[in-house]
Amino acid sequence: MSAHEQTVGPSAPEQTAVQSVRLAAPSLLGLLRIVLVVVVCTIALYLVWRIRVVVRLAAISLFLALAINPIVDAADRRTRVPRALIILAIYVLLTAAVAIVGAVVVPSMAKEIGDLSRNAPHYARDLRADSTFRHYDNRYHITTKLVTDARRLPQALAQLAGPIEDVTVQAFGFVGQLVTVLALTFLLILHGRSYVTMALSLTGARKDRNRALIIEVNRAVANYMLGNIAISALATIATWIVLSILGVPYALSLGFVVGFFDLIPLVGATIGAIVVALATVTVSFPVATLVWIGFIVVWQRFEDYVVQPAVYGRALNVNPIVTIISVLAGAELLGVLGALLAIPTAAVIQILAREWWSTRNGAHTEQPPAAASPPLQRAAQASAEAPAR
Q: Which of 101, 237, 244, 292 is an S-S bond match for 251, by CB 3.0 to 4.6 Å?
């Protein structure tokens, strides 16, 4: 090789060509398309906002249908009763359960509030019998404030009820929404399979995979809703037993209160525990209160690490941060009901996001769909083995 060739280096064809990038002005058709998409999206969002109440009721009905559907399917496979009668029977049982709980809880809680208001001075003397409490009471006047607030409690509750006219209007509005939700839930359970089949027929080659995805979503929501009710029932029974042993009055009513609040994720159990702790103060302070606090702490650990994993299984493997954010967002949007629906909603979004991500990465083209997602494989097998209705 000559000295000239060593100096110059590689020849021109071997050098990498540098391509220049030019930004072309958007065409008129492209601008019109962008404007049209923005206008259509804006109109769609505006319409959704105008019918937000209808959308909310439809979402609630869908979750209730997913929760009740497994019970209806189980009864439908084992009996020859028409599916519509099975749904109506479940409605009757749920209505009877709510009526029984209301008949037990409301009168006893009202009587307890009245007794607490009348016997507040006696309870205050019992509290002052403890030397430690008396020391702080002399400094901060705790019993005086408690007696004053307790005597005002019935009047405060009466004021919270509001005018009769407003209460009546709200009650009729609630009844109307409840009837709408029950009717939509009834239709979704009765004809849900035909609706799903019709929708799946539009998906073409992805029909089987989408069917398995719907089964997985249905299982996740049903496991959460039914599991949450089962866990709250266990909390009710456990509270009833402990309070009966401690001699706390209206133990069953307080058990229902704890079970109701236990339905609310994150903070519900704590709220119920505080309500019961206040009731134990009037029995034997501080022994009964300390026993109750110790029990509820142990029960919560048992519920978190034993009961919930056994009931939910792996259907709701939701990230803790996502759980907290979803519960806060649901409570802000729909109150207590939003907090109840937040975790299953987050689980559904997680399932759909996982499926979208696997599709985006082309996982379903590299291997059969059954191998790409074990939960979907199990769901598809369960669907194939189920008898056709």
A: 244
Q: pTM above 0.85?
A: no
Distance CA 87, CA 164 (A): 35
Instruction: Tell me the helices (H) and strands (E) count for the chain, helix number first.
Output: 18, 0
| Inter-CA distances, 157 with 113, 193, 212, 238, Å | 10, 47, 51, 29
**Helix 131-140 with 142-161: angle, nearest 10 deg:** 70
Confidence of residue 174 (pLDDT cuts 50, 70, 90): low
At 369, which amino acid appears? Answer: P
Residue 256's contacts (CB-CB under 8 Å, 6 or more residues apart) are: 101, 104, 105, 236
Sign of the dihedral defined by the CA atoms of residues 298, 300, 302, 304, in that order? negative
Q: How far apart are CA 48 and CA 59, in angstroms?
A: 13
Question: Which of helix, strand or coil describes residue 91?
Answer: helix
Backbone torsions φ then ψ of 95, nearest 5 degrees: -65, -40
